[in-house]
Description:
Pfam family, one: MS_channel_2nd
Protein name: Mechanosensitive ion channel family protein
Oligomer: single chain
Shape: elongated
Subcellular location: Membrane
InterPro entries: LSM_dom_sf, MscS_beta-dom_sf, MscS_channel_2nd
Largest sheet: 5 strands, antiparallel
Distance between the termini: 126 Å
Structural class: alpha+beta
Keywords: Membrane, Transmembrane, Transmembrane helix
Amino acid sequence: MENLLRPLIVVGGSVVLTLVIGWATDFLLRKADERHHETQLWGLLRRGRIPYQLVLFAALLRGSYDEADLLDDRREGLGQALTLLLIGSAAWLVIRIAGAIVETSYSRYASARAHRDPARVRRVRTQVTLIMRVVSAVVGVVATASMLLTFPAFRAAGASLLASAGILGIVAGVAAQSTLSNMFAGFQIAFGDMVRIGDTVVVDGEWGTVEEITLTFLTVHTWDERRITMPVSYFTSKPFENWSRGTPQMTGIVFWHVDHTAPVDAMREKLRDILRECPAWDGRAYNLCVTDTTPSTLQVRALVTAKDADDIWTVRVTVREEMVRWLADEHPYALPRVNTADALLPPSWNGNGNGHPPSQDGVPPQQRRYHGSARPER
């Protein structure tokens, strides 16, 4: 009877103590979260209750299973399994605690500087994301190494592994050259302030927003809901446009091709009226001028401003659409058109034809009418 009750008491006691301590800890964290609304730390720490309970259970059972006479013939295997569970759950708990602390610190920083320096906030967000990935990777590697060292075979082979570590490191470095270059490029992007999460970029002609940055790849969310995944080494070796670099304010350009008779002064006044009714215009500046001419059209350019890349797109499309609609309604003659009117012959071509013989169809050149820009051959 004692041999039956002892295992039940040890295992049941470990489970009950784990549930009680876990419930008490979660209750205290919940009360602290309700009392301190200015910080998210206590609420985020509650995410670690599962690994916390696993640590408690593994530690309690690991320390008392010898007294319970559990599986005497497999005691070493049971102890090994509990040790592995303890190491894995402890690593999981460390990652959750580190994530809660880092996310709380970032939230405080972002709430204090979101309106004054949004570019700096995006930079810190990128760095925090990569730091958390590095911390998770380091903790995972340490936990895996600790698990392997619990096996006697690995401890015996440790000396030979250390002796060959130099050669293996060289071979691995050559084999993983691309991966290592991307990893170092990820650190360079994070701490070199080249590109940040939330930046508006143009890469290979694609316009979008940086959605995710890891140590090896970067994801750009395009305006048409596509995701472009690129190695981070691309951004350290090739040029790209970062519209969010420095101040987010931007100047946009709108072009029109109009007829030579277009009322440029009236277009300039209409541009002012359009911008006044456009909420995306920041009111800083605007301008309209003729920048080029062709034999059939004028090239008119408008400069407009906005507070960021999203608004400048809205301003540009609004100005382009409203100006074309206004020209079509009020000044249709100003729209570009193909000249199909009959060309007038020069005055030097009198009724006698100035000595030019009539054409093969018997019509004198002075009586022939030409279309477009065509002229008779002399």
